[in-house]
Amino acid sequence: MLEDDFNDCISKAIRGHGCPIVSLAKLAGIPERSITDCLQGNENPSAIRSIAPHLQLSAERLLNLKNYRPHTPIVPGLTQVTSPFGHLGVNAYVITSGDLNLIFDTGTDASDLQLLAPDAQHVFITHEHPDHVAELNSFTTAEIHRPAQLQHGDQMRIADLSIHILDVAGHASPAFAYLIKGLEKDVCIVGDAIFAGSIGGCPSTSAYTTALSNIRNHILRLPGDTILCPGHGPMTTVTQELAHNPFFAS
Question: Is 27 helix (H, G, I), strand (E, B) or coil?
Answer without folding.
Answer: helix
